[in-house]
Amino acid sequence: MKMKAFLLLGALAGLAALPAAAQQGGYVVIVNETNDIAALKADEVSKIFFKKAHRWPNGNDVVPVDLPESAPVREAFSAAVHGKSVGAVRAYWQQQIFSGRAVPPAEKTSDEQVVAFVRVTPGAIGYVSAGAQLAPGVKRVQVIR
Amino acid sequence: MRNVISIGLVAVTLALATPVAAQETKLQVHGYLTQAYGAAHGGTFLGIPEAGTADYRTAALQLRYTMTPNDQFVWQFSHRRLGQSPITVGEPELKVDWLFYSRQMGDFDLRVGRLPIPAGIYNEVRDVGVLLPLYRAPYDFYLEGAFTSETVDGIAAGYHLFADKPWNVEASVFGGRYDMTNSNTQYDSTGTPVAFVPELADVDNALGTQLWLNTPLDGVRTGFGASHLDVRNGSFQGKWTEWHTSLDARTHWVTLQGEYRKFDIPDVIYTAGYLYAGIHATPKLTLHGQMEFSNVQLTTAPGAPKFDYDRTKTFGVSYAFRSDLVIKSEHHSTNGHWSDTPVSPIGYPAAKVSYFLVSFSTSF
Question: Is A53 helix (H, G, I), strand (E, B) or coil?
């Protein structure tokens, strides 16, 4: 009995020690380190990536940057943040494009490119794989559900 | 020449057809194509003859030049074929559909130039097959070719109120002018109607609004819009007013839509509406059902008669290989006065014409 309790406590402790990224399903959201934001609600992140939110509290324009549809982390991000499949997100952007209103965020081909873009763009926000190497100049943002 | 342009458009669209993906270049190119084959029974409807036609398509190429993240130029040119429809006689093979400058300022946006009119669920995307449940937007409500316009030469502004709230409002206003093609009846020397003929009209002082109330339920919204315009010449010269209301509910399994509108034009009140239901049997397969109606009330004198102008029932099925590659098959049963032949203007017996369309749509 003691052994079972010990194993259970160990498992819980291990879960608690997991980085936030893993708890978010394999992605981390990043912004430029000059951005004061430390945490965002999932629906706020969703609005940013649907270009429904345009400004940071500091007045900078929000510049979301995406990964290709084929990236596994994009599927995880879409499901967790938008609550939609990548195909449903694509359909949303078709509606925006062909009504002349907006185009989707620019895409970078890899985690490294997303990190590099966010590092040099003050208003940028992106997401990368949980295990991606984050360079100086970018910081993680906690996503609250 | 027509075939060369059509084949060229098909080839370019298919060659470029890849999933919508953001491009980093300042110049972005998008486009769509829907190619259909249709055949009618009991007459000709919207250019679809009993013998059938494949001369039925919509296509467009859109160029978007991004100067800054908030400043863009959009140029779209389009091509449309409606088979043997008299409405498209004289219509250019390619026309400048849109040409406007767009500026985003926070939750406020401004567009100036030739731009799509925000009206109802589908007016801005009425030719985009991958976004429409059926080949065209519901005809009684949106019309096609005549008595309607997708675009205005002028200005449009939009504002997203309470954008960060579960209940929020997207508001648009527009103003300007446009050219409109109307349809009029041609009679022979005995007074028998023989054809519907196009009639060009200048529209000035167009002014309108569209409001969408988004609800906390994802995909569920309701809308209201209204417009006023001055038709300067032709048989329908005078001041037109219009209002419409919409319900748009798109869920995982079912899409339900309904819209109603009322046109008040000189001597006539035109009312129209539709109910649409789409059952998403699988993520790719959708079953469609739609009922449309329109009525005409003459206002030339007190007690003037009211006519059931059209009643249409539609059933269809579509299969989306991807969201940008869709095939559809649909059957429409009409009972009214919209058919090209028999020519049956108001006061003549309603014509029963049915037609089917099979189509494929793609976009990039």
Answer: coil
In sequence order, what are the residues at sequence separation of 6 or more whose Cβ sits closer than 8 angstroms to the Cβ of residue B205?
B175, B177, B228, B229, B230
CA B169 to CA A60: how far, in whole Å? 24
- Nearest by CB: B20 against A55, A88, A97: A97
Residues B263, B295: contact at Cβ < 8 Å?
Answer: no
Chain B residue numbers touching A97 (CB-CB < 8 A): 20, 30, 62
Phi, psi of A77 (to 5 degrees): -65, -45
> Across-strand partners of B346?
none
Contacts with A69 from chain B: Cβ below 8 Å: 19, 21
Return d(Cα B57, Cα B70) in angstroms, integer. Answer: 33
What residues of A are in contact with residue B101 (Cβ under 8 Å)? none
- CB contact (8 A) between residue B163 and residue A104: no
Per-residue pLDDT of chain B (364 residues; tens, 9 = 90+): 455 445 455 455 545 444 444 445 689 999 999 999 999 999 999 999 999 999 999 999 999 998 887 899 999 999 999 998 887 777 788 999 999 999 988 788 999 999 999 999 999 999 999 999 999 999 999 998 677 888 999 999 999 998 878 899 999 999 999 988 887 788 888 888 888 888 888 999 999 999 999 999 988 999 999 999 999 988 888 999 999 999 999 998 999 999 999 999 988 999 999 999 999 999 899 999 999 999 999 888 788 888 999 999 999 999 999 889 999 999 999 999 999 999 888 888 999 999 999 999 999 9
- Hey, is the C-beta of B50 within 8 angstroms of any chain A C-beta? no
Which among A47, A94, A107 is the nearest to B323, CB-wise?
A94
Q: Are B195 and B343 in contact (CB under 8 A)?
A: yes
Burial class of residue B136 in the structure, from the number of CB atoms within 10 Å of its CB (0-12 exposed, 13-18 middle, 19+ buried): buried
CB contact under 8 A, A98 and B32: yes
Nearest-angstrom CA–CA distance, B308 and A133: 68
Closest CA to A97 of B309, B40, B66: B66
pTM, entire model? 0.84
Mutate to test the interface with A, among B323, B325, B361, B362 (most CBs of A within 10 A): B323
